[in-house]
Amino acid sequence: MAKRHNKHVDERAPTRSSRGSRDRSGGAGKPRSRGKSNRRVDSNSPEAKAKPLRERDPLEFKARNRTLLLLLVLGLINAWIFVWRDDGSIDTFATEAAVIGGGSGSHGFADPLDEACAGDSVRIFAGLDDRLRLETKLGEGRTLRLALLELGVVSETIDEVEAAVRGTMDLGMLTGSGAPVRIAGDREGGLQAIEIELSEGHLVQACRSSGGLEVRNIQHPLRIDVAVISLELPDDGSLLDALVEAGQTPELANLIAQTLAQDVDVDVDTRPGDRIQVLVEKRYLGKHFHRYGKLLAIRYGGHAGRLAFYRYAPKQGREGFFDQDGQPMRRELLRTPFAWHPVDSDARNSMAPAIEFVDGRMGAVYRRPLGAPIVALADGVVTAIDRQGEEGLVVEIELADRRKLRYSNLLRSLGELEEGDEVEQGQVIALVGNSGKTPVSRLRLELIAPTGERLDPAALTDRRKSRAGRVGEPIPAAQLDRFVEDTQSWRRAMRKAGE
Prior knowledge:
alpha+beta; ten-stranded antiparallel sheet; five-stranded antiparallel sheet; 8 helices; 19% helix
């Protein structure tokens, strides 16, 4: 709101009207010059009716100009906010502020990087926490090239990887081998590090340096330990800082966030003082810690509620997480549309989504850095992937009940995603961008009914409102006692760690 500027005039300063001009009642002032006699003027004459000219006050003139200038500036700002920015619709509004770094410039998440070799003898991804961390397997008939294309790596970089790895092993042996492939990449499709796990304890790794890709072949005996890790979120609420304080590596943050994503968005819902305990495998090659394995159990207690889940594989059932009563952890929709990525702790208070109306269509708007990874909220089929005017690059996914999820303003889709492709819940499908009519990087997410009506996205944006229902089969009653017995030691260990 513009501030009103009070006109200030020095009352002691003489004005022209006080030094000889006629007053407003028509009375005569003191004559200005000698030798002229006072003459009587007819009150009905034009001369008598004429109003005396008033001299312009410089202070008043400056104050008025400043006010006009301020109003003009405010008008331009309002025009930018309500007309030109974001989707350009006059009826756009947000119920919450959602401001975070990233912007439309060259800086954001997973910037291209020329030097990525950290010097760790086993952990090729050490120091690459700000990269896109993706993983797949060389399934039946799948070559290394196809796997890297699926992970969004560009063709020129794949040529470079193949040339580098070919000097260490026969690429044909990789096809259909089932070997896990893990990468750390940038948002433009470049690659900073890659790891191919040929067998237990046998790795082929490569990292980028100024001279190209440095390749190494590692073979060490594998050892797997199980650790109970207790975390308390610090004053800035950062999960990453809590892990460092506990003497753990940042890679564990992704496992924790991915598991909790069924119920908790660790960047939005958590608060300082919240506590998390996990039971997780730690894999060593020789004496060197390599990476975390399976997360076996997790407990959370804090601002977003209390929950505890345990990994279990029922007989003739699918392995998953279950609560102490044997109910499945999985929900129909994830709590967040993002894979975990490190963010500035100062920006956490601005990461809550906002509700936005554009031309009568309701959606949720998330501000994230350029290049942040976006996931499928549920299993589904891609029904559209193209550029659509002011919405930029759009991906639509149809769910089993024929509702659709619509993601817009994307930087790019990940890999060779096409219409008709099936995607799984939690799969990274695209990156945050500003491809639509918006000056900042952001994601607009819409939930669409089969009729085309935009549904209230409160289930995504507000944890206090109705959440998507649980999906999957519970542990059969006949196996429940065995489940309780098998997980009893895990429960005791985590409770003790949390004391």
